[in-house]
Design goal:
Blueprint: H1 8-16, H2 20-38, H3 53-65, H4 69-83, H5 85-92, H6 96-102, H7 111-120
Length: 136
């Protein structure tokens, strides 16, 4: 987030501006920003938007295409939270807290954990060639 500090140096600079239109535009932008800061926002949570199996499949597939292990773990965690972490813990036999930790951006789940989670979520991992195919 950007924070605008009106220091003494800024005030002197602003007061010396001779272009009235520039002063007005700067002032309006600062006021607009201050108004925006007062608006309530909430953190984005992908789990809130994963409503269907198709949403979850597409989300995980997109994460896998990025080749980023942290992103893949996070995507699995988002899907797990969308379906219910407690239920997933029961299905996998793993602790709920350890699943939260493993399936986060900082987590580094073992392959066996990933496979258990994917199976419990009712998903499958598939392998495809990374080469592009020529049309025949």
């Amino acid at each position: 987030m950007i924070e605008i500090l009106q220091t003494e140096h800024y005030r002197k600079w602003f007061d010396k501006l001779k272009d009235r239109n520039a002063r007005v535009r700067i002032d309006i932008r600062i006021r607009r920003y201050e108004k925006m800061r007062k608006e309530k926002t909430s953190a984005w949570d992908a789990a809130d938007h994963l409503k269907t199996e198709a949403d979850m499949e597409a989300y995980l597939e997109a994460a896998l295409e990025e080749n980023d292990s942290g992103l893949i773990a996070t995507a699995l965690g988002d899907i797990a939270r969308a379906k219910g972490m407690t239920l997933l813990a029961k299905k996998t036999g793993l602790g709920r807290e350890s699943l939260y930790k493993a399936l986060s951006a900082q987590g580094n789940p073992e392959l066996s954990t990933v496979l258990k989670v994917v199976k419990a979520l009712g998903l499958q991992l598939q392998v495809r060639s990374g080469k592009t195919r020529k049309a025949v």
